[in-house]
Predict the structure.
Amino acid sequence: MRITITDPGDPRLSDYVALRDTSLRKAVETERGLFIAEGEKVIRRALEAGYQPRSFLLAERWLPGLADVLAPHEDVPLYVVTEDMAEAVTGFHVHRGALASLHRRPPTPMADLLGARRLVVAEDIVDHTNVGALLRNAAGLGWDGVLLAPRAADPLYRRAIKVSMGTVFSLPWARVDDWASALPRLREAGFTVVALALTPDAISLDAFVAAGVPDKVAVVVGTEGDGLSQRWIDQADAVVSIPMQHGVDSLNVAAATAVACWALR
Amino acid sequence: MRITITDPGDPRLSDYVALRDTSLRKAVETERGLFIAEGEKVIRRALEAGYQPRSFLLAERWLPGLADVLAPHEDVPLYVVTEDMAEAVTGFHVHRGALASLHRRPPTPMADLLGARRLVVAEDIVDHTNVGALLRNAAGLGWDGVLLAPRAADPLYRRAIKVSMGTVFSLPWARVDDWASALPRLREAGFTVVALALTPDAISLDAFVAAGVPDKVAVVVGTEGDGLSQRWIDQADAVVSIPMQHGVDSLNVAAATAVACWALR
């Protein structure tokens, strides 16, 4: 349903306002149950993954390239705007003027991921870029899914989706509601819980791999600032480190996850 | 030499203007031969690595913590400002109000790195975040240095330094002036040149490692958009890929470098 819009204040565009205002977006997206996909490739991936669109906000030149994935959604408002208009609405220079607003799905329960063999468990990673990169790395390296602590950043936030290159739509992930019971539940499901942390008595990743990688592995990573919480370090089946050289304190959490996912795949 | 400044337009602060304006900064920093370090830890690392300061721009509360590294530079202007002033000068919210302007050194020649055993060679990685992350990963995982193509982003750009966590000061790196001769020079110096690329006939990183890692390895990585140039792919001793799953196109270049540095260390 093609609609040409010329007023950036048009209330029909309210899903798209102030895309750089993280706190406002959090409220808007939670209340309306939506998320925003940005860029042709990401919109395509969201639709191919079966997410239902609320509306599209596209510059004219994207229409031919997206025609095939737009076709089944003829009843959905397709707001055609200039790139300047897109900028006026969203408050920033939209990546080549292609946006979609999509319905969130009911959250995946943690239990759905417990049949997997390789999980990344992300403690309080509050940075959307890190969450997106972590998902991309876990997916690319063939891991089965990601569990997120209650305070970890939202994988369906625009920036996280973009950095993940849309892998948030294909890799299974779940929010852990009760963080305190997550570790015993993982162990009960047969996982060896591996805390990735640079504690003095950690085993090196090398040595851990040499001793034989267990059948089911859950790698737990923590925030960059404070690292993994002491509780997980204390209770994990193994504390494993990627030894650092040249005086470097640590790798970024997404890079560390990539190395661990490669070594333990 | 402590100087309190109250006018954000004070010409003595001209090293610090418009820190988010990449093109302006490129001109300012090249012409004056300076770079900017941001944050207490990064300033400390730059000074410890022997870089000579031109001046400091610090909020009062940083003085005690940096006193030991500031002491040998009593003749260098130390501009003490409020955090609001720092913001007014630099045009953005400076990370907790701590900046230093330092002299660049003469560039390291490529030849200085050819005695190493493990080098990362970065083709046209134009994103400062990626260059900084790549340096951090190479350093943390114990590689000996990084060679940068002529068009790769400046590791001494503020954002690159910050993302690298200051490893740009400790890990040797050099700009390759003549890109066309870089590959034969590496080979002449005894390196096995490994192109990291997702070409259909690439060997998987696993298989390459299983066949025995050569004594001297130079891993060449390319830009994320276009990947490595065909010339390097054609001429490399081996083309190696990190196999991707879940429909992911590729890892981010810094994450791919981390995996390769780990596997080939």
The longest strand of chain A covers residues 53-59. Chain A has a mean pLDDT of 93. Chain A has ten helices and twelve strands.
